[in-house]
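Intended use. Records like the one below are meant for learning the mapping from a protein sequence to its folded structure. Do not use them to infer anything beyond what is encoded.
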Amino acid sequence: MLLEAVFHRPKMNWSYAVDRETIHLRIRTKRGDAKQITVVYGDKYRFDKLRDTAPMEKFASDQLFDYWQTAVKPPFRRLVYGFLLESENETIWFDEKGFAEDVSKNVNTYFNFPFLNAIDVHEPPAWVKDAVFYQIFPERFANGDPSNDPDNVEPWGGQPKYNNFFGGDLQGVIDHLDHLQELGINAIYFTPIFEATTNHKYDTTDYMKIDPHFGDVETMKRLVSDCHARGIRVMLDAVFNHSGGRFQPFLDVQEKGEASAYKDWFHIREFPVSVVDGVPTYDAFAFEPHMPKLNTEHPEVQAYLLKVARYWIEEIGIDGWRLDVANEVDHQFWREFRKTVKDANPEAYILGEIWHDSLMWLQGDQFDAVMNYLFTNAVLDFFTKDAMDSKQFADDIQALQAKYPQPITEVMFNLLDSHDTARLLHMCSDDKRRMKLAALFQLTYSGAPCIYYGDEIGLTGANDPDCRRCMEWDKDKQDSELFDFYKNLISLRKEHAALRTGSLKFLYAPSKEQVLVYERRDQQAVFVIAMNAAESNQSITFPLEQGRYEEVFTGEALSSDGTDASIELPAYGYTVYKKIS
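Structure written out for the chain above:
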């Protein structure tokens, strides 16, 4: 075995508490090296009497490595452990000291999980595992109250620009909750709704006030109440990295300079505040002068923003916060934010906007999950860009499964497009067959899938601002067949936990091909899903356990004697089989 490839480290994503009794242990080995791994574990104070073994299961493989996992229940919440690695021709012992030929008799060299403290267990809100989110950009979803339209409002459905308005508001959302309920949505993510000057509202003027063009606090209360009555959760967007240029404390700094009582609310390098050669004399989001960065280390800034976080949960009843530009805010602020939010509602969902590896924010002291752009990138590369083959895609997805603890993977926010990207249909070159494949994988994978408003009826659009088109409410212009596809798939997902939290296994993912077969399984159900992301028909044979299977949408039968099964898939076609016996 290639010992240099073997890796384990206590805590993080390698040993963590799943609940108040159970610890997951993981280890990495070179792909194909180990045939069997056994954990030897016990209590360090009575290791001679409290010692046991547990087999490990290979749960994921990427380009270079295999990842193994097992679950153990330490009898007294203390745990020491080591790994016995076996290949076809050798056996190696691995513990904190390193490698040896035989199992160590010295308990002091074992890896150590000192104590399973209940307060340290990261238990994300259970409801998120079952959520199907729908992202709404309020200014473009529906105009339910023309009386609050901006003075320069344009006719609904016009060409979106960076600075134009069409009058979308919160009443428009209330008016169309039937649409979301019919689709099967049970959670909404709103981009910012607080007072701001732009159409996107990421330049907050007042964090305690609903933007007047969207409605008022009473409208928001009614919206949340109506959503909750339909079993729909509500998550708002918190822009705490930066404010808007019309935020009153920043206006005070602009007016008074160093004499301003708010000068330390921001990161100002030079007075008076100005812009020199396109760069503000203060820290700002992406050098945008209109978005000055807040100093979240300042006690008064912390107090103000934490007041905001608590108010909208306790007074309005929202169910979560999405945190904009979360990776540029200090970790300590997010720790205080979590304490505040969980005190207001322990079941509130805290979601960070981070586009890269996010493990440091997901240790149970900051976020419940992040926007899973690593998932997004893999799905888009395979299904829309032809940038990887089936094996590379399967490797990427399995590497992602090993990157975070399982409870976090189950509540990650899995999106394929948003207000920040081109629309999914556009990225599929307006070929909805490709779009369906991407959505099928999204809706049969662990985590909380999010549908960007309008995707379900065929709304397309290039990068911002084109991706922020007005929602199409004319039934004759909606793609009803696509709507039914999403509706049926969401219903299937909600009916079967195997598609949400079951195990994932790739049955067929060869290199230099665009065909994929994978299994989702739990104790109640087994699903086998096949996809052809190629532009030609494909006939494939793949290993399948013995049994009878039925295609969930067509009723077509498939049988296996326990060896292989063969199917044919049309270009950009798919099939979803459920084992029936």
